[in-house]
C-alpha cells in the first residue's frame, strides 16, 4: 500500500548521513539498509522462508514481549547504501515515477495465487526500521515507524530557535554568532564611538535568518542587546532584557489562550549566551546582578569571551573561579539533563565533558585563514594561528555541538516546560487577584450606587469563577481586612499603653 | 544558504612568513565540512525524545455486534487487545444501552513504546429503536475533549497532559452489498464533525470482487451526497504531495477487511486467515482483502497525521465552542447580557 503513496523525495538525501556522522552509528541497530531493489513481485513464496524461523504464537500477551524484542542481525549493508546514494537525484522527481509505474503493474494483476509480500517498499527508505530480509518475514505490527512520522512532519514545518546574546560591547558577540551558525547576520554594522555611546540606552534588536541543511529548515532568531553595560551608570541596564523576555512570554500566553491557535509563532527566548569578559577576575558585579535577574526566565549559558587572550592555565583558573562565584551567588544557569542508564559510555563522557567546561571559553572569527594547506576560520597573529574549530584552542566546538547538535531540543523543552509555565502560573495568579479586587470594588460600588457596572473583562481563559465563589472570596477578604484593622488597633493600644513607661 | 561576511581586513605586517595567507572568504555551501553547522541533528534529538516518551493512540470501534470488531483489533495489533464482548452461549446478552468500554495496553516494538487504548461500544445499533444511539458516543468523545481542556487551562499544568482524546473511530459497515443504511449515514454524519472516521466494510469475505467494487462505489457516492467527510478529509490536505497521497487513499475507502486471529499453513508459511471448504482467505494478502492497506494507513504512515488532525482541528473546534460558551455564561451571570469576546 505504501508504494502507492509518494516516495518522499527528502529521504535520499538523509541516507548520506549514515556514512559520515558517528552519532548515527548507534542507529544502525534499529535502522536497516534498504536492499538495492525491492523483491520482485511474482517470485515464488519459497524465497522468503528462512529455515528454522520461530513462528510467533498468536495468543501472546501484549505486554512488551514478542518478536519485537529480539534484535535481528545485521544485513550486509555496504553495497546497497552506495547504490542508494548514487540513485537518488537531488530533485527526487524521477524516482517516485519509476516506483509508481512498477507498482501499478503489480496492482493490476490482482488475481495472483501466491501471496506477495504484504510489506512493500516503504517511504521511510533508509530509516525504515523493518528493512532486513528477516524483518520482512516476521509478524510486526509496524508502529516503530512512528518516530519517523513525527519527524517527517517537523521537517515539513521547519524548526525555530531564538538565541539571545548579552554582554558588554567589544566582547565578540556578533563574531561568535556568525561563526556558530556560519551566517552573516551582522554584515553592515556601524560601531558607535565613545561619545555616541554615552547617551545610549540599552535597546533590543532581533535578526532572523533561515538556514537550511540537508532538508531541515531552521528559522534562527538572534536577539541582541547593544548598549548593555556601556553607559557610565549601568544600574537597571538588564531591565530591558527582562522586559523583552516577559513580553515574548506574554504574547505566547495570549496566543495560546486565544481562539485561533493554528499558527502560533514561538518567539520565546530559548537560550541566552552571557558573555563574561576575560579581562577581569571572574564575575563582575554587573554580571552577577544581570544573571540573577534573568536566571528564572531563560536558560543562561555563560561564555568566556575572547579566550585567545588567555593561556590554558589562566583559562582553567578563570573557569574555576567563575564556577565558584556562580554557586556562591546562587545563579541557576542551564543544567544539562542527566543521562539515562542505558545511554552508551561515549555519550555519558561527552555530557560530563560539557558539564566540566562551563563557562565555555570561546573564540570567534569571521575570516578564513589558510595554513598548512587547509582553510579554516581563524585568527592570524604574528606568533601563530588560532583555529576557531580546534578543540584544543577553544571550547567553540563544544558550544556549537551543545547548542545545535545535542541540546537544541532540550533547551526549547526547558524553556517551554519550566520558564514559560512559571511565568504562566504567576500571570494567572496576578490576573485572578486583579479580577477579584475589581469585583470587590465594583460590588462595593454597586451596593453604594445601585447602578449596573461594566466589568472590565480581562481575557481570562475559562477561569471558572462564578458569582458564588466571587462573593465568598469577597466576604473572606472583607473579614481579613476587618481582622487586620482590629489587630492594628490593638497594636496601637499596646504602643500607647507602653509609652508612659518611658 | 548563507554566506560568510567580508569585514574590514587589516594589512598583514611585512614580517609575515610566506606560508600564511589571508584570503577573501568564499561562499560557504559545499565547501567541505566548513559550512556544515549540523542543524539536522535536531531530528536525532527529537527521535530520542520521542522514543523516551512513547506514544499514545486511542481507537474507537463502532458497529453492530457480530461484525468482527474485536477480532479486527486483535489482528491489527497482533495481540489480544480486545476481548470479544459476546460469549458464544445460547442466550446472547445484548446490553440495553450502549456501554462504552475502554481498555488500555502498553505495547512495544523495536524500542518504540505505545500506549494503545481500544474503546469498544457494544450495543450500538442493536436495539429495536436505534434513535439517538450515537448520543452516548458523542458524549464520551466530548468528555475526553473536556478533560483535556481542563488539564490545559489548569494553573499548574503537567508536563505531558495525558491524552485520552479519541484519535480515530473505525466504523464497521455490514456487507449488505447494496448501500449504506440510514443508521450508518446518520451516525457518520454527526460524528465526522467531531472525530476522524475511518469506515470499513466488515466481513468482506462474503462479497466477490465485483460486488465489493460496486458496494464501495455506492458507499462513496452516498458519503459524498450526504456531505460526510471521512478521514482523510479533503480540506485538511496541507500541500500537493499530501493531496496526491490522500487522493489515492480516498479512492480506496472504505476498506474491505477480513479479520482473523487464527493461523493456517499456506504454501509453507503460517498466515492469519480463515479456512473454508473452498479455500483459505489470507488476511494479509492484498489480493484477498484490504486489511494490509488499513493497517498501513492507520499505523505505518498516517498515525501521526490522524493524531495531529484530532488535536489541532477537532479539539480546537471544541475548545473555541467551549470558550465562547463560557464567555456568554459569564456575561449572563454579570447581568449585563453583553457578549464579550
UniProtKB/TrEMBL annotation, chain A:
Keyword Cell membrane listed: no
Domain Septin-type G residues, every copy: 157-430
Gene3D superfamilies associated with the record: P-loop containing nucleotide triphosphate hydrolases
Main location: cytoplasm
SUPFAM superfamilies: P-loop containing nucleoside triphosphate hydrolases
Compositional bias (Polar residues): 106-120
Region (Disordered): 30-84, 106-130
Cell location: Cytoplasm
GO CC aspect terms: cytoplasm
GO function terms (MF aspect): GTP binding
The keyword Cell division is annotated on this UniProt entry: yes
PROSITE patterns in the record: G_SEPTIN
Keywords: Cell cycle, Cell division, Cytoplasm, GTP-binding, Nucleotide-binding
GO biological process, one term: cell division
PANTHER family according to UniProt: SEPTIN
Assigned protein family: Belongs to the TRAFAC class TrmE-Era-EngA-EngB-Septin-like GTPase superfamily. Septin GTPase family.
Annotated protein name in UniProt: Septin 4a
Organism: Hucho hucho
From TrEMBL, chain B:
GO MF annotation list: GTP binding
Primary localization class, coarse: cytoplasm
GO terms, biological process: cell division
Compartmental location: Cytoplasm, Cytoskeleton
Domain Septin-type G: 53-325
PANTHER family in the cross-refs: SEPTIN
Protein family membership: Belongs to the TRAFAC class TrmE-Era-EngA-EngB-Septin-like GTPase superfamily. Septin GTPase family.
Protein name: Septin 9a
Amino acid at each position: 500500500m505504501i508504494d502507492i503513496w509518494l516516495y518522499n523525495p527528502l529521504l535520499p538525501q538523509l541516507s548520506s548521513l549514515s556514512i559520515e556522522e558517528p552519532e548515527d552509528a548507534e542507529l544502525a541497530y534499529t535502522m536497516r539498509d534498504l536492499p538495492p531493489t525491492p523483491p520482485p513481485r511474482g517470485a515464488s513464496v519459497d524465497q522468503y522462508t528462512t529455515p528454522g524461523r520461530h513462528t510467533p504464537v498468536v495468543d501472546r500477551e501484549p505486554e512488551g514481549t514478542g518478536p519485537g524484542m529480539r534484535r535481528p542481525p545485521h544485513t550486509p549493508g555496504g553495497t546497497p547504501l552506495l547504490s542508494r546514494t548514487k540513485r537518488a537525484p537531488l530533485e527526487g522527481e524521477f524516482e517516485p515515477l519509476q516506483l509508481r509505474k512498477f507498482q501499478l503493474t503489480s496492482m493490476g494483476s490482482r488475481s495472483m495465487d501466491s501471496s506477495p509480500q504484504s510489506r512493500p517498499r516503504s517511504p521511510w527508505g533508509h530509516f525504515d526500521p523493518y528493512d532486513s530480509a528477516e524483518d520482512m518475514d516476521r509478524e510486526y505490527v509496524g508502529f516503530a515507524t512512528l518516530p519517523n512520522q513525527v519527524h517527517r512532519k517537523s521537517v515539513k514545518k521547519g524548526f525555530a530557535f531564538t538565541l539571545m546574546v548579552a554582554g558588554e560591547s567589544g566582547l565578540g558577540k556578533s563574531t561568535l554568532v556568525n561563526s556558530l551558525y556560519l551566517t552573516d547576520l551582522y554584515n553592515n554594522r556601524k560601531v558607535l564611538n565613545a561619545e555616541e555611546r554615552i547617551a545610549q540606552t540599552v535597546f533590543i534588536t532581533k535578526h532572523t535568518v533561515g538556514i537550511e541543511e540537508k532538508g531541515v529548515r531552521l528559522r534562527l532568531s538572534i536577539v541582541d542587546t547593544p548598549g548593555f553595560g556601556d553607559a557610565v551608570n549601568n544600574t537597571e541596564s538588564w531591565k530591558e532584557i527582562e522586559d523583552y523576555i516577559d513580553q515574548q512570554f506574554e504574547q505566547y500566553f495570549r496566543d495560546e489562550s486565544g481562539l485561533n491557535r493554528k499558527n502560533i509563532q514561538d518567539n520565546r527566548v530559548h537560550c541566552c549566551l552571557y558573555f563574561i569578559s576575560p579581562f577581569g577576575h571572574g564575575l563582575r558585579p554587573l554580571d552577577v546582578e544581570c544573571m540573577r535577574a534573568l536566571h528564572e526566565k531563560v536558560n543562561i549559558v555563560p561564555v568566556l569571551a575572547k579566550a585567545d587572550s588567555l593561556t590554558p592555565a589562566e583559562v582553567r583558573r578563570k573557569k574555576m573561579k567563575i564556577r565558584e562565584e556562580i554557586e556562591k551567588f546562587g545563579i541557576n544557569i542551564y543544567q544539562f539533563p542527566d543521562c539515562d542508564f542505558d545511554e552508551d559510555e561515549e555519550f555519558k563522557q561527552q555530557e560530563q565533558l560539557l558539564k566540566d567546561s562551563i563557562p565555555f571559553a570561546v573564540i570567534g572569527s569571521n575570516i578564513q585563514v589558510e595554513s598548512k594547506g587547509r582553510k579554516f576560520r581563524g585568527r592570524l597573529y604574528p606568533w601563530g594561528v588560532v583555529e576557531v574549530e580546534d578543540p584544543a584552542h577553544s571550547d567553540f566546538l563544544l558550544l556549537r555541538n551543545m547548542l545545535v547538535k545535542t541540546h537544541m531540543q532540550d533547551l526549547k523543552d526547558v524553556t517551554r516546560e519550566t520558564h514559560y509555565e512559571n511565568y504562566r502560573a504567576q500571570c494567572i495568579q496576578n490576573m485572578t487577584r486583579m479580577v477579584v479586587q475589581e469585583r470587590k470594588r465594583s460590588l462595593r460600588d454597586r451596593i453604594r450606587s445601585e447602578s449596573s457596572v461594566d466589568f472590565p473583562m480581562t481575557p481570562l481563559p475559562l477561569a471558572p469563577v462564578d458569582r458564588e465563589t466571587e462573593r465568598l472570596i469577597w466576604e473572606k477578604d472583607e473579614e481579613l481586612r476587618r481582622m487586620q484593622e482590629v489587630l492594628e488597633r490593638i497594636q496601637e493600644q499596646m504602643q500607647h499603653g507602653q509609652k508612659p513607661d518611658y | 544558504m548563507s554566506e560568510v561576511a567580508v569585514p574590514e581586513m587589516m594589512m598583514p605586517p611585512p614580517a609575515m612568513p610566506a606560508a600564511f595567507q589571508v584570503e577573501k572568504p568564499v561562499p560557504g555551501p559545499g565547501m567541505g565540512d566548513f559550512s556544515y553547522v549540523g542543524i539536522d541533528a535536531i531530528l536525532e534529538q527529537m527521535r530520542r525524545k520521542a522514543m523516551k516518551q512513547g506514544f499514545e493512540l486511542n481507537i474507537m470501534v463502532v458497529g453492530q455486534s457480530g461484525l468482527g470488531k474485536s477480532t479486527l483489533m486483535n489482528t491489527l495489533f497482533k495481540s489480544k487487545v480486545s476481548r470479544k464482548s459476546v460469549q458464544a452461549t445460547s442466550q446472547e446478552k445484548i446490553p440495553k444501552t450502549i456501554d462504552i468500554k475502554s481498555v488500555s495496553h502498553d505495547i512495544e516494538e523495536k524500542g518504540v513504546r505505545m500506549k494503545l487504548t481500544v474503546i469498544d461500544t457494544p450495543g450500538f445499533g442493536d436495539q429495536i429503536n436505534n434513535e439517538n444511539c450515537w448520543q452516548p458516543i458523542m458524549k464520551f468523545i466530548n468528555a475526553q475533549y473536556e478533560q483535556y481542556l481542563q488539564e490545559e487551562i489548569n494553573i499548574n499544568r503537567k508536563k505531558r497532559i495525558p491524552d485520552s482524546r479519541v484519535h480515530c473511530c473505525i466504523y464497521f459497515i455490514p456487507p449488505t452489498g447494496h448501500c449504506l443504511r440510514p443508521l450508518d449515514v446518520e451516525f457518520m454524519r454527526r460524528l465526522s464533525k467531531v472525530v476522524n472516521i475511518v469506515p470499513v466494510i466488515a466481513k468482506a469475505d462474503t462479497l466477490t470482487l465485483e460486488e465489493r467494487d460496486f458496494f464501495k462505489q455506492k458507499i462513496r457516492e452516498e458519503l459524498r451526497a450526504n456531505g460526510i467527510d471521512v478521514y482523510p478529509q479533503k480540506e485538511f490536505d496541507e500541500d500537493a504531495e499530501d493531496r496526491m497521497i490522500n487522493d489515492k487513499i480516498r479512492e480506496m475507502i472504505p476498506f474491505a477487511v477480513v479479520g482473523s486471529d487464527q493461523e493456517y499453513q499456506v504454501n509453507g508459511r503460517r498466515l492469519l486467515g480463515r479456512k473454508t471448504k473452498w479455500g483459505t482467505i489470507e488476511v494479509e494478502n492484498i489480493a484477498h482483502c484490504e486489511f494490509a492497506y488499513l493497517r498501513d494507513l492507520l499505523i505505518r504512515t498516517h498515525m501521526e497525521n490522524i493524531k495531529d488532525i484530532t488535536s489541532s482541528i477537532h479539539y480546537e473546534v471544541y475548545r473555541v465552542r467551549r470558550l465562547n460558551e463560557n464567555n456568554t455564561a459569564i456575561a449572563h451571570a454579570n447581568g449585563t447580557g453583553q457578549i464579550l469576546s
